[in-house]
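Record pair follows.
FIRST:
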Amino acid sequence: MAKIVMIGAGSVHFNRNFITDVLLNPGLRDNTLSLVDINPERLDVMASFGRKAAEQNGFNTRIEATTNRLEALEGANYVINTIRVGGLPPSQNDRNILAKYGLDPDDTMGPGGVFHGLRQIPAELDICRDMEKLCPDAWFMNVTNPQDMISWAMNDYTHVKNVGLCPDPQLDAVRLARSAGVPFDGVSYSVAGINHLSWYLEFKRNGEDLYPRLREKFKGDVFSLSDPDWTIQTYDHHIGENLVAIELFKRFGVFPNGSGGHISQYLPYFKRRPELTEKFKLKESESVFDHNVKRDKGQDEELRQQLRSNYKFPITAEYRWAITPANIIYSMETGTPRRMNCNVKNTGLITNLLNGCSVQVPCLVDKEGIHPCYVGELPPQCAALIQSNINVQGLAVKGIVEKNKNKIFQAILLDPLTSAMLSIDEIEKMTGELFQSNKEYLKGFK
């Protein structure tokens, strides 16, 4: 029987779905779920849900709950991280500052991503150090942003087996199949790059190359289409964000993976002027942030009401964010081989990206663990776009771990979108305000 530890378990959006996916899978439901959160009230809600759902369906899943992380990590086999250090207030403070400078913030790249990493990385390295003592053979699975910076820090500064997980490759593959006019059944693909900016190097169905269909689909004026096939609204990804991906495909010849809302903040082309934001129908980050806060609050209240009633929790098959770690654990526990896209250390896997950075590549998963696949060279134009972001990530990780404010400032200077919009003096002033706003997380910084 495996012990699966969920750190940050009070978050309803991810953890309710993960618990459901564990109960849904006969190969996982007899294991132990150990829930950890610093908020005992939210922790109790999630534990009550897990126990009630298991009991209602006659499953033997053991649900533990504790605010003591060390207690939970003892003897763990898998550790899933969903923490958000400081909760929502520091992210909102970052957004307010960046908005003054005309920047639409993100939690994966740019100044917003760097400062989100400044809060996240030290806390996650602390978890890894605890794991080195209490469960050295366990796998750490990170599902929080900034994915690449966190993975890079873990690979360079801990000995813990770790993997970064994001469902975007499969979500976008489903939409690409719709665009190509084929069922998703029988589709195969190869995706490689970095998180939220990787590329479909191959996209086939039953051996047929689907790229000619996609070129035909998008050869005209995409902006005049009233109902593109990429209008499926999944996890708050909307039509405008897909226009960014289509534009990159038309210009660079390869389809990118990752929602356009993320991609547009990795590159200097789409959010530097209001008319471009409008042209590509990109939602302002503030509206998305408000929507997500409202969504999370609604899901939390809904769950509490269900627990107070005699609600029967359904255990039904549905693709969720949480299915990625659930599938990996299932393959490791049962030996059932599976191919997935994961964020891992670049050990020569992508030869024209920096060795040692974090990359998203196909991986084979089985009872022996996660085995990254060799990719070789990316198309040079794709590698060049990615490398500009890797430069930011690498310097930011060094600055965060070494507690060096100047390196963090230099990382933001290198950010493609920020440097396209602001002068050096403006970036310095903005970074100073971000440091001041995050002063409680700067102990020991120089």
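SECOND:
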Amino acid sequence: MQFSGRFLGLFVIVATACSGGPKEQPTPDASANDAAIVITPDASTNDVVVTNEAAPTKVDIDGDGLDDADESAWAEEYFPFYAIHPSDGCKTHGVVYRLSPHPADATKLSITYDVLYDADCGANGHDGDDEVFSVLVDPKKPGVSGILAVRAISHQGTPCEHDTTCGVCQGMSACGTAQRNGSAYPVVYASKDKHGNYADKPTCDTSFICDFGGCGLPSTADASPLVNAGEAGKPLVSNLTTQGFITTTNGWTHQELFDFDPWKPGNFGGAGDVSKDLVDPAFVIAPTGCP
């Protein structure tokens, strides 16, 4: 809809006179989703253009204060180079993640990635496997520049546990990198057949008893399906088979893993409890000393 500049000026004068003078206007609420009236000049006709522009609609089903579509984009953008050993004998896997504002600094994000496998085929193998790592992110920075730190804990809660953290924050060792999306991304290594996650390859390679075969770097980055679990009490997924994650088409073979609910307490086959993995404070990296 268009009004001439002269007509709009007359309208403003009359409106001001009727109201008893100009009044202070309220400050717009940037968080509101209401439609906004936008008036812009058209230099070619000396008219103004009046339009209704609806603010973007925020969808936050899991109730963590973040738009769910943004969460999906961030989870992909800040996913490290995940390195499954080239000779691994049981590679079928996918990733469930929880992304939320960092509890100590809401300007940062904490992303917990839980890698689920069809099987652990190493020593004392079992159906199902869950191995976790996390990333501390500054979402104001794009791509790899936004990854501040990475933490991996292999075989958590067992005598084989190894905790490794790397990053650009004070006191941290630099992460090893490999090319992903045309940039040098931090690498998270998964040990051969056992899938223990490491943010430091030498630590993996010297864990002979627990991770025989060590870690290796494939020629290309892993392209795991990423599924947002949401939050406890407000899940975004409750069945990883109907959702399209754990299916025979994707190579999964162990029926006890089908129709798995990541927020339902209980073990993932012969592995750990995914509902506990997703909220484990051990994977929340302190944002102190970060640029």
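COMMENT: DSSP finds four helices and 15 strands in the chain.
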